[in-house]
Amino acid sequence: MDGRFDTDEFEDLIREQADKFYLVPSERVWNGIYNNLRPGSKWPSLGMGLVILISLVWIGSSHQPQVKENALQAEAQNNKQLTVEGPIDPQTVNLNSKAKDYSKSQSATMVLSKQAPTDKRRKNNQAGLAERVAVPSLPPDDNSVMRPNQTIERAETVPDEHKPVKASEVAVPVSESADKDNIPSVPVTDKGVLQDYGLRGIADLTVSGLSDGVMPELPETKKIVLSRLISEATVAAAGVASAAATKKQAAKVRKAQWEFFVAPVVANAHLNKIDIQAPQSQSLLANSNIVGFDISKRSLAGIQGGADAIYKINDVLSARTGAHVTYSGYKIKADFVHPTFASVTFVNREGALSNKSYMTYYGNKGNAGKMNLNNYRLTLSMPLGVDWKVYENDNVRVIVMSAVEPLALLDANSFVVSSDTRNFVEDPDLLRRFNVNGNIGTLIDFKGSRVNWSMGPVFSYQILSSYQNTYPIREHLVNYGFRIGVKKSR
Amino acid sequence: MTEEQMIQGCRENLPGAQRALYKRHSAKMLGVCYRYARNQEDAEDMLQEGFMKVFSQIHQFKGEGSLEGWVRTIMVHTCINHLKKNKKFAESVSLAYAEEVRIRDYSIPSLLQAKQVVECIRMLPLGYRTVLNLYAIEGFSHKEIGTILEIGESTSRSQYTRAKSLLEDILIKKKILTKPKEKLKMVSGEI
Fold first, then answer.
1. Which residue in chain B is spatially nearest to A255 when comparing CA positions?
2. Do residues B78 and B97 both lie within one domain?
3. Is B43 found in the same domain as B78?
4. Is there a contact between A246 and B187 if contact means CB atoms under 8 Å apart?
5. Residue A334 in contact with residue A364, Cβ under 8 Å?
6. B39 and B95, same domain (yes or no)
7. pLDDT tens for residues A44-62?
8. Same domain? B106 vs B179
């Protein structure tokens, strides 16, 4: 760097002002440096994040169906007795109201157990809940319990200046007298602080009167003192304004980038049958188990829409979350048949079998009139994923995104195949209320001056079966979509 | 921790020393990066990259001159390299583009003093801004700027003249400077 001797006032002024300026970086910068210097140190946090994610998924997927599973187990016990006793007596069979009026409904359900277990189950659950809620209260003078007024007292003793200040969003110019190695940790953030420090009026004077260059009529000594105070207050006021502006700008940069999208999807289902190893005593049910597994199904068009919030982690990776609503499913080719009974065998965790009968109009692989049964799902989901930027230039950016997507079922229609595969029966209660999708896709971002368009193929696979584990057929929905999104340019 | 201990600690790759060096210089250096960057996020990226270089090349620092000056030089070069990766940077330093530049009055931010001056500098087109930063603030000669930015010395000179004129106009419009230009003075006194 050669020395120059042709600097004028302008350069001096600019340099002087520029040297006073500093910005406090966010903690993200140091974390990035630290992780780059010590790559191994990020594995514990990544591992912890993965554990939390898996825990959430597990809680969402396994906790909810547990109650129904217990109920089905109870039903299995009842049915076991019926099976051992011999053939089913049609007089003992109770049809529910839906089955009785089958001229109105398309299908009906017949429960083999003599009592509908729903009410009893509900009562039992309520009783159990009440027992759990009735926890004895702690003694009032127990030292381990923090009383509310203790907290208040403690809060009151904390002085204002010790309250945490978000340093990353503060930018103040360094005054001439400031120690450059010791940046003040408590910046002035508003005019009220000036007033707190006994500079009431000066802040107003600085903000309004000073810019006009007007000095009030005062004795000379007071003028000097006032000038110094004004100078200090001006620096503080500059801090106020610059902090506010930087905060505004930083907030704009820091906040999540929102992407709104719509994706036409084509869905299908991947079906697997699990083998049931029935004990000898339950051979009758086992023999009625699925022998062949041949279902004619077709893809169904659906749609997905939603909004994603994208948080930039570093130059290459971004975190993605949001809310999606998806309508998708597939259709089954069925035959319209005379009303008939069909049964489905369930197996619980202990391997005990239970049977449930349904009245149905739908046959499989018959010669009657063909019709379509739509197995649709309407879901609300929240993706938790990572975007990996694989390529970027001035105009486009290519992103590979992957996510796990916990979802809740909002509405559904579900036709399942009977155990002998000759019929289809309708039973939406078999569906899991919560599930998880695994998503992967490639998006191309087209950068515009105001908005960025992003589009590309996405693929989604439902990780858990659509049905509860008691149903011996595993159904995994597969969605193929083309996503078109828009987000505001940064 | 003295500066010597801090440098020695950084040479031995001690996290505490690295953290201390970062804490001492990061705010000032982010201010430097901010003058070159498009936004604060870019500036933080530049800062991160710059400090990575500082820590990896600390053994090259012989103690001749101040540590801050050495760190600052690395930061400035990191910023320039960062800008060079962007193709638009090359266009912005061409004269043809510079002729068409106009600054709209309403886009001038209403800020004060150092921050305001820096924001006014940041309003300049990228090419102007970079040349002005390097010449007026960092103290590089036009020859050096030409080498760094891979442009002619005369281009650097003319870019600077235009940048200076444009910045003066902005500062006068914002009443940060008083006319006439020959006698530039800060309005708000001796700051």
1. B41
2. no
3. yes
4. no
5. yes
6. no
7. 667 777 887 787 777 666 5
8. yes
Domain co-membership, B106 together with B64: no
Q: Do B117 and A18 touch (CB under 8 A)?
A: yes
Last residue of a domain, one of B85, B116, B131: B85
CA distance B130 to chain A (A): 14
CB nearest to A13's CB, from B55, B144, B184: B184
Interchain contact, A21 vs B31, CB within 8 Å:
yes
Provide, as residue numbers in chain A, all residues whose Cβ is less than 8 Å from the Cβ of B114: 17-18, 20-21, 173-174, 238, 242
For the question of an ipTM over 0.90, the answer is no
Of B18, B115, B144, Cβ closest to residue A245? B115
Q: In this complex, do B164 and A210 lie within 8 Å of one another by their Cβ atoms?
A: no
Residue B154 belongs to domain spanning: 87-191
Q: How far is CA A266 from CA A193, A313, A330, A409, in A?
A: 60, 32, 9, 18
Same domain, B180 and B132: yes
Tally of structural domains, chain B = 2
| AA letter at A142 | D
Residue A373 burial class via C-beta count within 10 angstroms: exposed 0-12, middle 13-18, buried 19 and up: middle
Number of neighbours of residue A332 by Cβ within 10 angstroms = 20
Counted across chains A and B, CB pairs separated by less than 8 A come out at 156
- Residue among A43, A116, A445, A472 at smallest CA distance from A271: A472
Distance of CA A182 to the CA centre of its chain: 42
CATH of the domain at B26: 1.10.1740.10
Please write down the HEC assignment for all residues of A118-157.
HHHHHHHHHHHHHHHHCCCCCCCCCCCCCCHHHHHHHHHH
Residue at token pair 């078109």: A484
Examine the domain organization and report whether B14 and B71 are in the same domain.
Answer: yes
Residues B74 and B138 in one domain: no
Element (H, E) at B77: helix B67-84
Nearest-Cα distance to chain B for A465, in Å, is 43
Contacts of A20 in chain B (CB under 8 A): 113-114
- What domains, with CATH codes, occur in chain A? 98-117+256-488 (2.40.160.20), 164-253 (no CATH)
Q: Do A37 and B55 touch (CB under 8 A)?
A: yes
- Contact between chains at A28 and B189 (C-beta distance less than 8 A): no
The residue out of B67, B85, B103 marking a domain boundary is B85
CB contact under 8 A, A237 and B112: yes
Mean pLDDT by 10 residues, chain A (490 residues): 53 82 85 80 70 74 53 54 43 42 41 41 45 42 43 41 44 44 44 46 44 54 68 66 63 71 90 60 42 73 92 88 92 81 80 79 74 88 92 89 92 84 84 91 88 91 88 88 87
Chain A residues with beta carbon closer than 8 angstroms to that of B84: none
